[in-house]
Design goal:
alpha/beta; 3-stranded antiparallel beta sheet; 8 helices; 11 strands; 32% helix; globular
Amino acid sequence: MAYYGKTEIILCDSYQELGRIAASDVAKTLRRVLSSQVEARIIFAAAESQVTFLDSLAVEAGIDWNRVTCFNMDEFWGPDLPVSVTCSYQISTQLYDKVRPKACYAPLYSAPDPVMEARRFAEVFRSQLPIDILCQGIGRSGHLALNEPGAALLEDVESVRVVDVCEESTHQLMDDPQFKVAAMSLRKGITLTIPSLMSARHHFTMVPLATKRSIMSKVLRLQAVSHMLPASIIMNYSGRLYMDQDSYPGDYFLRQ
């Protein structure tokens, strides 16, 4: 068993196995939350790294989704973007349309004014606190949601921000079949901030695929949280980090 700070590392054999194991763990936690309170609130991410997880969670049995409120952690902004290349579309088609939660909230990608939309989404988010479960990935730039290196505030006083999407994140989107079209014109996004994400009581971070090995090697080598790699914040929180054989930096466990 290995840890990254307080976060337990779960090494999986494959992308598919990672999705199944992570979904099983999240489902168990969600059932437990619903057994002790009337409703649950959960944050989800959209990306290629989340596909097998979301597909597996959608078929988990015994979850009363009628008592679950869901939040998308971020969204691309652009009034001319096709809906089919938005984060909302991916999560909806993979999960929400199948399980029918009580409510789903996300920034509106086509809002005329991104700043006003961020304020609206922040109000909704704050009205639903506290958050029970966070399900997230780590971007190739080291971002969480769209909180980019060097720009993210680890102790941000805001719940939601309008952000510039960095070059490495744009390259990642170009390599993601779901978001390639969006990357061609994408410049800004709307995202939950680091404190908003990490305010959840339970944290699950899914990071499969070979494209993530380089950034995971950098993240896991850090001994302290750095604003230049926002994903490093997870070392300060109890939770689980799921990697597969492709994303796992081969010497990490040897250094424990």
